[in-house]
Amino acid sequence: MSEQKKGQSIEEKQYLVRFNADTKSHLHVKDPDICMTSCPDKICTIFCPAEIYKWEDIRMHVGYEGCHECGSCRIGCPHQNIKWEYPKGGHGIVFRLG
Amino acid sequence: MSEKFDCIVVGAGPAGISCAYELAKGGANVLLLERGEYPGSKNVMGGVLYRKMMEDIIPEFYKEAPLERPVVEQRFMMMDKESAVTFGYKGMEWSKEPYNNFTVLRAKFDQWFADKAVEQGAVLVNETVVLECIVENGKVVGVRTDRPNGDVYADVVVLADGVNSLLAQSLGFHKEYKPDEVALATMEVLKLDKKIIEDRFNLEENQGCTIELFGDATKGILGTGFLYTNKDSLSIGVGTLLSGLIKHKIKPYELLEYVKNHPMIRPYIQGSEPQEYLAHLIPEGGFKSMGKIVGDGVIVIGDASQLVNAIHREGSNLAMTSGRMAAETILLAKEAGDFSESMLDLYRTRLMSGFVGQDMQKYKDATHHFDKFPHYFDEYIPMLNKAASQMFTVDGSSKWDKQKKIWKDIGSGKDKMKLARDMYRAWKVIK
């Protein structure tokens, strides 16, 4: 069963992926106050498939380096509070297979 | 880059490459822009490539393209928590030329396909993001890229920039999508010995199997899972409407793990080694979510125009056909020297009168219907499993008694009416 456990956590999954991260983020929380005061669920921390959104007590940490560029956060944020762009050409996620 | 092209195609996926290939073949001067390191590096698909629409572009491509396996069997599993009712079709006519469809790994396939477009004369430039369309007097005349002096001009710009299509959105062709118009799919490629795959899936060499998963694979949320055989790996994934994940507060990768560990699935993938994890959105709003797809000097194709038939897990074939039709229209426009919306609208009318438009219209209510009535997935599939279990369990009670019990378990007369009504409704939205 030990083999079945491989790749099970999101950290392990993300470790399988190649990223060529830019030095600056392509994702921005437009108004940090909205996350703090108007968004009790902070649902982006749940549905983001790479778990790049992490709530740290008073602020949203955006680990853009591991982004799959899927667009879910832009569409799913209940407050349209995420400015979403593509990373600079040649940067970001690099799929090798699928 | 201040050159002018006949056409600029933004995005090297199945739609964009098909379009660039056909344009170059038709003698047009075409620039194909890709934001990734190479074509395919940003692209994700469960993995079924349909032969017919690809052959409309490159006849007998299967003799040289990097394909995984020709699919000879398609299974459908209606899953409950610890059971499944399975049906499927396997046919040897699919094991030989011209084949029906193939499993593919997109990063490999798209690179090969883009190379073919380059052989035809298309200019491929990777690592280039298109920031916006350059619009003059209401007409799209080029694109602004993120390269230094990165403006490029063309008679026509084709937007094949995928599900997010920020470019079509910024032209006002479609509104921002809502969470119930897109499905979030996560998948993994699992390395597994070729021989083990063939034994487990009852295959011979160069034969593949696809299994679509319904019901408990998505914990009752609207969506599906899949398990496909590649040469020496499996692709396993699960996709649900983004709105479903939000409503049920489910983490997509935990749902993927749930599927991988499901007792109906686990034995297939046992001992495999995860090689890659991928996430991507699928446009599933269907016909009603389609925005404008033609404007002055601009055409939208593929996922960017929401061309996905969610019921039949078709997308790349619609993308290819839309790319090919866009190219045909642009070649005619080039001949006529007219790149206006009314000329380019020929693309839309041809697309919508062919199989692409017909299928989009046929299933226009399907996603919304199944989303609105979740009991298809969370009630009826378990009911089907329970009925099968009762019927096939030999325990000394007569088959008549078993049938009576199954009938009784459906519920009151009112419940039976509801079931009949729902079955009729489901039939209506897909008929």
UniProtKB/TrEMBL annotation, chain A:
<keyword id="KW-0411">Iron-sulfur</keyword>
<dbReference type="InterPro" id="IPR017900">
    <property type="entry name" value="4Fe4S_Fe_S_CS"/>
</dbReference>
<feature type="domain" description="4Fe-4S ferredoxin-type">
    <location>
        <begin position="58"/>
        <end position="87"/>
    </location>
</feature>
<protein>
    <recommendedName>
        <fullName>Ferredoxin-like protein</fullName>
    </recommendedName>
</protein>
<dbReference type="InterPro" id="IPR012206">
    <property type="entry name" value="Fd_FixX"/>
</dbReference>
<keyword id="KW-0249">Electron transport</keyword>
<comment type="similarity">
    <text>To ferredoxins from P.putida and C.tartarivorum, ferredoxin I from A.vinelandii, ferredoxin II from D.desulfuricans.</text>
</comment>
<dbReference type="Pfam" id="PF05187">
    <property type="entry name" value="Fer4_ETF_QO"/>
</dbReference>
<keyword id="KW-0479">Metal-binding</keyword>
<keyword id="KW-0813">Transport</keyword>
<dbReference type="InterPro" id="IPR017896">
    <property type="entry name" value="4Fe4S_Fe-S-bd"/>
</dbReference>
<keyword id="KW-0408">Iron</keyword>
<dbReference type="InterPro" id="IPR007859">
    <property type="entry name" value="ETF-QO/FixX_C"/>
</dbReference>
<keyword id="KW-0535">Nitrogen fixation</keyword>
<comment type="function">
    <text>Could be a 3Fe-4S cluster-containing protein.</text>
</comment>
